[in-house]
Amino acid sequence: MKYQNKLPEYLLHIPPKMWQEFCKSMLESRNINEEVIGFFFCKSHQISQLKIRYIPKAWVVPLQDCYELQSNSGLVLAQKFHSYILEKYLQDGLHVVHIHTHIGEFMPEFSSVDDYYESEYANFLTRNFSQKIRLISGVFNQSLQKGKFRIWNRKGKNYYHVDFHNTYLKTNNFDASFASDAVQEEFEQPFNSQYQDGFDNTTILSSFSKNLMQSTTKSIFSQQKSYNNQNLMFARQRIFGDVCQKQLHELKISLIGCGGIGANFAESLGRLGVKNWVLIDSDRLETVNLNRMPGATQKMVEQQWYKVDYIKYLIKKIYPTGSNVKAIPTSCDLEIAQTEIAGADLIVVATDNHLSRKQAQELALTYMRPLVCLGTHIDINPSDNTPRMFCRVTVPPLGGGWCLMCGNIISLQKAAVESAPAQINQMVNRAGYIEGVNDPAVFWLNSICASTGVGVIHGMVSGFLNLDAGIDWIYEFPNSVWHQTDTKYLETPDCYFCSHSNGLTTESEDIDTESDVDNMDYW
Fold first, then answer.
1. Cβ within 8 Å of residue 361, ≥6 positions away
2. If you write DSSP's letter for every residue of 80-104 in order, what string do you get?
3. With contact defined as beta carbons under 8 Å apart, do 259 and 286 qualify?
4. Per-residue DSSP letters for 447-474?
5. Domain match, 41 and 107 both
6. pLDDT tens profile 135-183
């Protein structure tokens, strides 16, 4: 594969709630027609050789006392304030994003003054910090509704476009030109290496071209037929719009847990149009699984299929061509799995244990990826000995507020037991269970949970579901009642996982810069 002629793709994804709070602080920090500036500090994540995502870990908006000059023609930060942010954030190796406004409501352009000072600043960062810090700059109109971003090289001599999104879910963009080059190289390499010596080039080229034309023609007709079939397949989803369907096709899901809930979820979401998957589960199919896993057979059990391969089989039955499914038969705590999980657009955890849910939540926090948690529970009502059944769908807010741990949706005590040595784990788990059988589970309850999770994701992509504050829904049967948790009660500003562990500050201070430089709004 040839990469040398390809430019890297730079992504900056700021969650909507975080962006709204940042914009509000920016607008409040000026008087009438003054320019304002704000900062994000980001970690970088190398998704692939040519794709880098910048993940915001903190933001700062200086108040008026932090400027030496603030007018409608430009601004200058106070040296003491500038030194403070360099020491607090850049010493830790975070990349800096400058966002400033221009007067007016039209689409702004970077000025020659912006070019000069940003070039100098990018070079300054290279000279003074050993962590290879990059400068990303953004310019917006005065209402912060229209803007653009660019990233400078470390010498400050050139810059590149940055793809900015402030939506809940960022889907991948398919690079058609890159795919075309890959196909071209696939045909060029055998010809150049095997045929050019010892043969008449004209004859070989004619023969090769004829074969290539025949195979290409068959491929085009086959792809066109597949394309037409898929258009017809989704004809009854047109009410949601072509853009929504395109985004579903591009969406990449990391599914952790490929059992009863995961299988139903993958089948339903696959038929909605999702073709790109990373499947994580170390278990193999067992006979006890067959009551709730569609299409699974006793023969698969006898052949000791991994659950990830079984779900891959389900997806490939829907999409014989055009799908991309990575089946990784391991747990989510191994590096090979975490690398793939971090590169997805959305993490879904559908496991039956607290430890893997905790690990999935930590990955979602680290890489600022949306997380959907699916689970079911069956027990016996002690008052009348009748079964009680529940399913739960939880989506923590993206960018802070609460997580599965601080909302007590995951038991850290149980997660600790599950991470204990196998003998202790088995001894504790046997309490309350039939020996050799895990939690009770039935197909229809798993289906309710999985289908609701699919509906939530459909709402994310199409935009008809507001997830800024997160959701926590619980279905109770036989009462057939849905309970919706008031998520404000789940918010935990000092949570160890979603606050302190990420170095995020969640309070605001207004202190005179003569005594302290913390005169800013920050998150």
1. 349, 371, 373, 396, 403, 404, 405, 410, 497
2. HHHHHHHHHTGGGT-EEEEEEE-SS
3. no
4. HHHHHHHHHHHHHHHHS-S--TT-EEEE
5. yes
6. 999 999 999 999 999 999 999 999 999 999 998 887 543 333 333 333 3
Check: CB of residue 362 under 8 Å from CB of residue 497: yes
- What is the dihedral sign for C-alpha 289, 294, 297, 301? negative
User: In whole angstroms, how far apart are CA 111 and each of 73, 100, 164?
Assistant: 11, 12, 20
Partnered with residue 471 across adjacent β-strands are 395
Residues of the chain with pLDDT under 70: 1-5, 31-33, 72-73, 171-230, 421-438, 500-523
- Are 214 and 239 contacting, i.e. CB atoms less than 8 angstroms apart? no
pLDDT value of residue 33 = 64
Residues 6+ apart with CB under 8 A from 434: none
Region for residue 144 given its phi and psi (left: phi exceeds 0; alpha: psi -120 to 50; beta: otherwise): left
Is 215 in the same domain as 257? Answer: no
The pTM is what?
0.81
* DSSP tally for the chain: helices H, then strands E: 14, 18
Cα distance between residue 177 and residue 121, in whole Å: 34
CA distances from 347 to 15, 248, 379, 502 (A): 15, 15, 28, 19
pLDDT in tens, 482-510: 999 999 999 988 888 887 544 443 333 33
Per the CB < 8 A criterion, the answer to whether 22 and 61 are in contact is: yes
Query: Cα separation of 238 and 248, whole Å?
Result: 13
* pLDDT at residue 230, rounded to an integer: 62
Same domain, 332 and 189: no
Structure tokens at 255: 């599914």
Say whether both 144 and 207 belong to one domain: no
The tally of domains found in the chain comes to 3
User: What was the pLDDT predicted at 212?
Assistant: 39
Of 450, 460, 444, residue with least CA distance to 267: 450
Instruction: State the Cα–Cα distance between residues 292 and 352, nearest whole angstrom.
Output: 14
Whether residue 281 is found in the same domain as residue 386: yes
- Total length of the chain: 523
